[in-house]
């Protein structure tokens, strides 16, 4: 049996099985063109309020953590700060599409900020994520298949604190900073874009060095608690959200309904997750901004599998599937295309 690293490594066209041309087009639900055009409208005011609240909450919880440093009161403060900081992963995800803000400069500014916070170098990850949407869960083509089979339970548990993926991301940043584009990156980053990856990675590396120097000079890990560190110690909820997207679902199918999952949840989780719980809708129509995904869900739900009713309900499907994939690589949840019940 091929090892996961070999099976999931990106390959050239000649090394990939050629799809049946009749099956190649992705399934797309019917949606009124006028409604879709309306849903695709970007909104600076809505996004500035949303992102402003996110930054304000981080500032408040981070300040509370600093003021309480050395006491037990810093623990809840940094717990909140870490969760908010690590949720940058979901905001970077949405911002990579350029959809939250109408003003391009605002999208790019927040994207680069969120990209650093989640340790996804922005130029690399934009091209990686484009490939992910073009070839979702296509083995040998998609660079972002988070759960590779046979499933490594240890790896999944380590990533509750971003240990496995975080180490790989930092190694990539260091490699790129020295001018060596990763093997995967050579597959999807255009040659003319590669210098941008190197330049930004060098900025990241300089920040890492300055952060380490600050910790040494201050004889304290407090700087690390505020920058980079929160992506690790605050990452559990982020990982739980991320696994709902595709874990346990089918690879190598041209129908997002079989490879991507939507679940309902409450307002706090939707805020932290940037409405990416509507992930099936996001993959079918990636140019619809996060704030319009609930309306898109309502418009197409009759052609989609019924969503999980909560995060816990989603994991009632995910956990047995992952345990099955430990023993039986290739197993996938079969999802009936039933009409979703009204909310």
TrEMBL record:
<keyword id="KW-0472">Membrane</keyword>
<keyword id="KW-1133">Transmembrane helix</keyword>
<feature type="transmembrane region" description="Helical">
    <location>
        <begin position="203"/>
        <end position="228"/>
    </location>
</feature>
<dbReference type="InterPro" id="IPR005804">
    <property type="entry name" value="FA_desaturase_dom"/>
</dbReference>
<dbReference type="Pfam" id="PF00487">
    <property type="entry name" value="FA_desaturase"/>
</dbReference>
<feature type="transmembrane region" description="Helical">
    <location>
        <begin position="51"/>
        <end position="84"/>
    </location>
</feature>
<feature type="domain" description="Fatty acid desaturase">
    <location>
        <begin position="71"/>
        <end position="312"/>
    </location>
</feature>
<dbReference type="InterPro" id="IPR012171">
    <property type="entry name" value="Fatty_acid_desaturase"/>
</dbReference>
<keyword id="KW-0812">Transmembrane</keyword>
<protein>
    <submittedName>
        <fullName>Fatty acid desaturase</fullName>
    </submittedName>
</protein>
<feature type="region of interest" description="Disordered">
    <location>
        <begin position="1"/>
        <end position="23"/>
    </location>
</feature>
């Amino acid at each position: 049996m091929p090892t996961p690293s070999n099976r999931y490594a990106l390959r050239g066209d000649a090394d990939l099985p050629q799809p049946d041309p009749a099956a190649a087009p992705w399934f797309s639900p019917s949606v009124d063109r006028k409604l879709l055009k309306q849903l695709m409208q970007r909104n600076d005011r809505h996004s500035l309020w949303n992102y402003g609240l996110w930054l304000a909450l981080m500032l408040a919880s981070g300040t509370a953590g600093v003021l309480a440093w050395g006491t037990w009161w810093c623990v809840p403060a940094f717990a909140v700060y870490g969760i908010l900081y690590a949720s940058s992963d979901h905001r970077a995800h949405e911002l990579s599409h350029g959809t939250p803000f109408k003003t391009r400069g605002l999208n790019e500014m927040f994207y680069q900020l969120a990209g650093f916070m989640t340790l996804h170098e922005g130029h690399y990850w934009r091209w990686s994520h484009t490939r992910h949407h073009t070839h979702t869960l296509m083995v040998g083509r998609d660079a972002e298949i988070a759960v590779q089979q046979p499933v490594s339970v240890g790896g999944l548990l380590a990533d509750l604190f971003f240990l496995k993926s975080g180490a790989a991301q930092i190694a990539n940043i260091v490699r790129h900073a020295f001018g060596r584009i990763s093997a995967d990156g050579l597959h999807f980053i255009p040659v003319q874009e590669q210098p941008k990856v190197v330049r930004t990675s060098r900025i990241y590396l300089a920040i890492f060095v300055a952060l380490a120097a600050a910790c040494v000079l201050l004889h304290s890990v407090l700087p690390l608690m505020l920058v980079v560190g929160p992506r690790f110690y605050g990452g559990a909820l982020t990982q739980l959200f991320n696994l709902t997207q595709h874990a346990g679902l089918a690879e190598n199918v041209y129908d997002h309904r079989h490879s991507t999952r939507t679940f309902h949840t409450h307002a706090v989780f939707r805020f932290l997750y940037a409405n990416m719980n509507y992930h099936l809708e996001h993959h079918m129509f990636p140019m619809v901004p996060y704030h319009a995904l609930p309306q898109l869900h309502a418009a197409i739900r009759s052609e989609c599998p019924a969503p999980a009713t909560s995060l816990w309900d989603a994991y009632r499907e995910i956990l047995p599937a992952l345990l099955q994939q430990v023993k039986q690589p290739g197993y996938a949840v079969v999802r009936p295309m039933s009409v979703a019940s009204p909310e």
